[in-house]
Amino acid sequence: MRLTIAQLAQRIGAELVAGPDEAKSYITAVGGVETASKSDVTFVTDEKRVGAVGASLAGAVIVGSLIKDLPKSQLVVKNVDAALIEALAVFAPKLKAPGEGIDPSARVGNDVRIAKGVFIGAGVVIDDGVEIGADSVVKSGCKIGEKSKLGKDCRIDSNVVIGHNCSLGNNVIVQANSTIGSTGFGYSFIDGEHRLIPHNGGVVIEDFVEIGANCCIDRAKFGNTIIGAGTKIDNLVQIAHNVVIGKCCLIAGQVGLAGSCRLGDGVVLAGQVGLADNIRIGDRTMVGAKSGVINNVGPDKKLAMIPAIDVKEALRVVAQLLRLPRTAEQVKQLVKRVEELEAAKNNKG
Amino acid sequence: MRLTIAQLAQRIGAELVAGPDEAKSYITAVGGVETASKSDVTFVTDEKRVGAVGASLAGAVIVGSLIKDLPKSQLVVKNVDAALIEALAVFAPKLKAPGEGIDPSARVGNDVRIAKGVFIGAGVVIDDGVEIGADSVVKSGCKIGEKSKLGKDCRIDSNVVIGHNCSLGNNVIVQANSTIGSTGFGYSFIDGEHRLIPHNGGVVIEDFVEIGANCCIDRAKFGNTIIGAGTKIDNLVQIAHNVVIGKCCLIAGQVGLAGSCRLGDGVVLAGQVGLADNIRIGDRTMVGAKSGVINNVGPDKKLAMIPAIDVKEALRVVAQLLRLPRTAEQVKQLVKRVEELEAAKNNKG
Amino acid sequence: MRLTIAQLAQRIGAELVAGPDEAKSYITAVGGVETASKSDVTFVTDEKRVGAVGASLAGAVIVGSLIKDLPKSQLVVKNVDAALIEALAVFAPKLKAPGEGIDPSARVGNDVRIAKGVFIGAGVVIDDGVEIGADSVVKSGCKIGEKSKLGKDCRIDSNVVIGHNCSLGNNVIVQANSTIGSTGFGYSFIDGEHRLIPHNGGVVIEDFVEIGANCCIDRAKFGNTIIGAGTKIDNLVQIAHNVVIGKCCLIAGQVGLAGSCRLGDGVVLAGQVGLADNIRIGDRTMVGAKSGVINNVGPDKKLAMIPAIDVKEALRVVAQLLRLPRTAEQVKQLVKRVEELEAAKNNKG
What we know:
Chain A has 349 residues and is α/β, with parallel strands linked by helices.
């Protein structure tokens, strides 16, 4: 795929600021500011990066407002993020479409309903009573358990395992090697042994949810573990039984949510965060990386630290933590000085 | 599945306290106190929840002792946890039994011994010399390496990979996408490169061990990595080479045990805990979530924090940590006040 | 496999110090100092362990220098680590070689180039345009995406999923259930929804890289995510889009690197470490377990803690943290004592 700079400007709805000769140069890819070559278009989303663009070899740059005195073709757009997504889509590698049909090595059970346009890859096992909506793709090596449902336009990457009674909406993506509907970690200690609490519930994953690779989402003990519409989940994330996640949340890599946690809408959990069981987090609250949340928290908060507290207070605590050796030395000196003052007082007294 | 409340009481061995009409109402599922409907039975394990039960729509409630003035059918049992497990088992979704036999797409090597009642799913690869005990289930896409042994009544979920020379006892469950018998992370830096230390050992998993989804258990360099009988392991857990875990331990999600750690019996590690290599932990010791254990610890301890210390001391440390900005401000003021006192003393002196 | 102690000494290039009868005893395995039996050879890499060797039942011991008065056959070598690797290789379990050929259940696309000596296991799916170098092994259940390339002598364990446009060098090992080339976690919030940023880039894994089980390495948004030659990665590691890792790094279990991090050569990250996005770490720098790195760091540093700071300073901080309850009590007492001094001063004044 190649487009002239002028053609690209038209494709992404940009105002082009370039000389007539430059506008005819070809662009074949999107590149980073530092790594782009003449045939790449790059972009500036951060004002601090404007300086670096001058040194970039990129043939053109997508900007939110015209950069003065920049001897480079500029594609001026209202929303750089949106234009970047457009440009990346234009230059995306052309991959073979998965096509339609069921690989003959797949095992399809009884009472399975597969809509038109669906692709079922090699070695896939689909148990009885499963329903798969139109144009969904289930790649090689997947397992879909009894009575589970997939909506339309889903993409289930290779070797994903979905247990029984799980329900995925439309346009759901599950990346490779993830496990949906595993039995949760719930045991009662009875007569000297840990007895598994049966997990009668399922998992409900709503429309436009995207789940990374090697994630685990446990089924509920009763009711459902629920992932709200539009929520995006990174790789290696653990979501325990009966967790309920709201809409449009972002859950970064290696986060762990213990049983029965409830997140509102638009919650953001950064990498390696952990939530204790039964924690409630309000809408739009953000939790910084590696934090450990052990108390419920309302909406529109920002938290950090183990245990997680308000981020501003956390910054104060950490600042004082890092200078704690000096503070402790001050205290030690103060003790001496106060002793001397006390001794002087007593001598006088 | 539906039972009248009276039938359910009989099934779970409960004393029924209900009016004769109520006793004939049908129950079809177990539900949470807040989410249950008329056709659900709910339960109270925590005295603090007694109040919430009054507002529950549940048709009946399993209790440890009669709740006074509760206008709801009560099933009074000695052990609510045990009765809940019974009730959940009664109403568990009825799934197709895996049946017996070897899917024709499976690859079974030479000298493999497969007992009666075993199910081997589609695409499973079983290498030479493997033994599988009666009534075990190996679901689709699994790989079982050379000379590995599974006992009776095991359940190996889809896409689990078990390497060579691994030994699983009876009634072992391994959930989907887990890897047993991976080569551990052991390198010697020799002549300018990291050279892998061969891992000649295996993995021994004893009876009634349950392993979650997407876990990794490395084989030993020599001898065996051992998981003791009755131990339960959650999802995404990393167990390194030569680790030895005792009986009836609980290892929560995303825990990591570095090489050659040894846990006693009944040890509990909460979510995202990490142990440094060669750590010893005594019987029944519990380690709080996100802790980092860098020192050996005896039996019957409770630890928390990074680095992990006694939980009571950890609570004191964290309490002071959170008020550290105020303490630091006090120190700053003290320095001023002591300087003034010293100045006054010197002026007088 | 069994060798006399004399034969073993010859095989690993050791000077043998043993009586003539002892030298004829057979050794069949390598064992740990505490667990070895008469037919095992053990080893001492740590001077502190010399004492324990006296009590070992091992038939022989590999040592770096002769241990005086030890009534046991000694194999004296220059480099115990290297000799241990040799000895483990001698006694490694003999496994069936994977052989050459493509399992008939594998799906091989168009324009695929498979060199001689390659083994492709059951249920493997190889998309169009893939190239696989000589003597590489792709075990059962793997998926290799469009136009990806594997070099010579690679070993891809069962159920690994490699996406399109990924490039693996020679002698690369990827252990079971890992995912290479997943789409990264990059979203722009546009018009009220999180829109995925297309990931046009690939993954480049250089020669002699070894990747553990259940790892995730995301493809780049543009350009490539790169793992430098000789780098070794443990299990359950998350490597986000556009990360660039240098040569001969060691990345321990459950580490997470956020987007666009850059590691120099020889960097060591211990277990459960997390790096914020865009972090730069210089050559040979080591980061202690569970640390959270939020600032760039130069070469040859040692870091620890959340947030990660110089390890020596971190030790001081943690030491003071642990005694913080006592320090806080001292401050409380100081406040009282200063108040008394002030009162006394004022009374006199």
